[in-house]
Amino acid sequence: MSDASADSASLAPEASFGDFFALLKPRVMTLVVFTALVGLLAAPNPVHPMIAFASILFIAIGGGASGALNMWWDADIDAVMKRTQKRPIPAGKVTEGEALGFGLALSGLSTVMLGLASNWVAGSLLGFTIFFYVVIYTMWLKRWTPQNIVIGGAAGAFPPMIGWAVATGGISIESVLMFCLTFMWTPPHFWALALFMRKDYDHAGVPMLTVTHGRRSTRIHIFVYTILLAILALGAGVTSIGGPVYMAIAIVLNMMFVKGAWDILNRDEEMSEVDNFKVERNFFKLSLLYLFLHFGAILIEAIMQRFGMGGW
């Protein structure tokens, strides 16, 4: 190495704790932690507080590991999308090699430690979730098919199942319903984002539905999936994870969500351009509240049932 190269290397800024933390996609991790916690607390079997804490911690680390590996693989498209240009790798704060090593280390740590802390069903589910998100979604589906979000949405839907498995050591209809709730929510949530961020996906060459089939088709898909989601969400209200509180919240939220999807369906591109996609942006914001409030309602019902007050 020349003196000039050595001097250049010595001047390169070292990645900070905050840079590595950003690799974990903390906002996404928040949803992972919350839905996993709801799955754990909604389960019929009580869990020791220390086991519950350790399990949620390792689930969070596993979710963060997925985010780091996703950023490692997608560094090239992150660099050309406005929404992602400030992420640690395209911003030059973390190298691709550092992100890969960090993600792999956390993946192994979280999977093994969750298995040891709770049970190997939960640990195996976490390991499969990381594999599904990184390999099936990020490496394969995301750049190959406009159905990337539909199929890839399964990765983000596993956390409540993992939380349930921590408590019960298995899978049940209740945990599958919580999985389905997140799975069906993912397409309209991301397609709404894609409507007003289409240029980003165009530039990056990502085959989102807005790019391959156009915005009109995307609007139709959003409406259809929202109707299916509403049916599922309301149906879950009459199962053991539901109850009066859940049903009241679900009715209001799904009326608002269906109304938002209907408004999106009945807009054309000229209308959207005039108000800078205001309706689509509002629907996207509502979608963030939608999932948190549904799982919050499941949590309330679970707590009430513990005190003999919830359920039908």
Structure description:
The chain is mostly helical and 312 residues long. The protein folds into 2 domains: 16-171, Tetracycline Repressor, domain 2 (Orthogonal Bundle), CATH 1.10.357.140; 173-312. Helices cover 77% and strands 0% of the residues. The protein contains 16 helices and no strands. The chain has helices at residues 3-11, 17-23, 26-42, 49-73, 75-78, 96-117, 120-141, 148-157, 159-168, 173-196, 198-204, 209-212, 214-236, 244-265, 269-274, 278-306. The longest helix has 29 residues, at 278-306. The chain is flat, with a radius of gyration of 21 Å. It starts with a helix and ends in a 6-residue tail after the last helix.
Topology:
Elements: H1 3-11, H2 17-23, H3 26-42, H4 49-73, H5 75-78, H6 96-117, H7 120-141, H8 148-157, H9 159-168, H10 173-196, H11 198-204, H12 209-212, H13 214-236, H14 244-265, H15 269-274, H16 278-306
Helix pairs in contact: 2-4, 3-4, 3-9, 3-16, 4-6, 4-7, 4-9, 6-7, 7-8, 7-9, 8-10, 9-10, 10-13, 10-16, 13-14, 14-16
